[in-house]
Amino acid sequence: MKTIRTVGVVIKPHAPRIESALADLEACLAARNVACLLEEAAAEKLGRPGGIPREKIPELVDLVVVLGGDGTLLSIAHIAARRNVPVMGVNLGSLGFLTEVPLQEMALTLEALFDGREGLVNPRMIIEARFNGRSEPGLCLNDVVINKGALARMIHIRIWIDGREIETMRADGLIVATPTGSTAYSLSAGGPILQPAIPAFLLTPICSHTLTFRPIVVSSASTVRVQLLTSGEEVFLTLDGQRGSPMVKNDVIEIRRADVDLALVSSPQRSYFELLREKLSWGE
């Protein structure tokens, strides 16, 4: 990891303790003579002019620090991945699988990064979704989801893996998740948990009416192609729960591993399985 000279700050504006967290972060950076660039919402919280639009932050910094929750981190992850800029998530919410650094460990984690401690920055797979052959794919850290609207009936989906049709199913939707995303929506839909380093992604049906179709783990070298066969219903494509568009009959999404990863900063205080144990209350 290159020397950190400038840190960009992205926040969830209404997170608890956000003002004090910003003050603590600025103090920690100032003690190391590291420049701090605030996104617009963060600058507004501190009553300062000149905040930077969120989407511009990764091109100007050596590290992005997210103060908030997983949704806030997901909003910047795909941009940071394109720029090969590491992201550190500080959890100001409750669950937080991605924003895994507790506020009380923020300074400790930053000090470890500044001192060059190894093993803190881990690559997380990014997948790309190309909608109807568009030239610019969307990048996702967690998942690509096809889902019916609130009042729609079940939808009909055809799935190919590496050009071979594997299933035509009726369900409420389909999740294609990375190992990182296996602890998100896919887990709620009954999918397994994958270690982040496993080179694979996961297809999880949402309330499948085809009872024989179960979650499938496929190689990250594969290409998944999904076609919507339903007409006259509300159906939506969402990327990381942040971006999306409506779908109509015969729309096609192609999903494959992207040629970039996200460099995600982990806590020096716990391993991945200790994180799972803490977040999922295993053994309690």
Helices and strands in order, then pairings?
Layout: E1 6-11, H1 18-31, E2 35-38, H2 40-45, E3 63-68, H3 70-83, E4 87-91, E5 101-102, H4 106-114, E6 121-131, E7 138-140, E8 143-148, E9 155-161, E10 164-171, E11 173-177, H5 185-188, E12 200-206, E13 216-219, E14 224-228, E15 235-239, E16 243-247, E17 252-265, H6 272-280
Parallel strand pairs: 1-2, 1-3, 3-4, 4-5, 4-17
Antiparallel strand pairs: 6-7, 6-17, 8-11, 8-15, 9-10, 9-14, 11-12, 12-13, 14-17, 15-16
Your description of this structure?
It is a single chain. With 284 residues, the chain is of the alpha/beta class. The chain folds into 2 domains: 6-120 and 266-280, 3-Layer(aba) Sandwich (Rossmann fold), CATH 3.40.50.10330; 126-259, Tumour Suppressor Smad4, CATH 2.60.200.30. 20% of the residues lie in helices and 36% in strands. The strands form 2 sheets. Strands 1, 2, 3, 4, 5, 6, 7, 9, 10, 14 and 17 form an 11-stranded mixed β-sheet that branches. A 6-stranded antiparallel β-sheet has the order 13-12-11-8-15-16, with no helix packed on it. The radius of gyration is 20 Å and the shape is elongated. The mean pLDDT is 93.
* Poorly predicted tracts of residues: none
Task: Classify the helix fraction into a percent range.
Answer: 10-25%
CATH superfamily of the largest domain: Probable inorganic polyphosphate/atp-NAD kinase, domain 2
Task: Please trace the helix and strand order, writing H or E for each element.
Answer: EHEHEHEEHEEEEEEHEEEEEEH
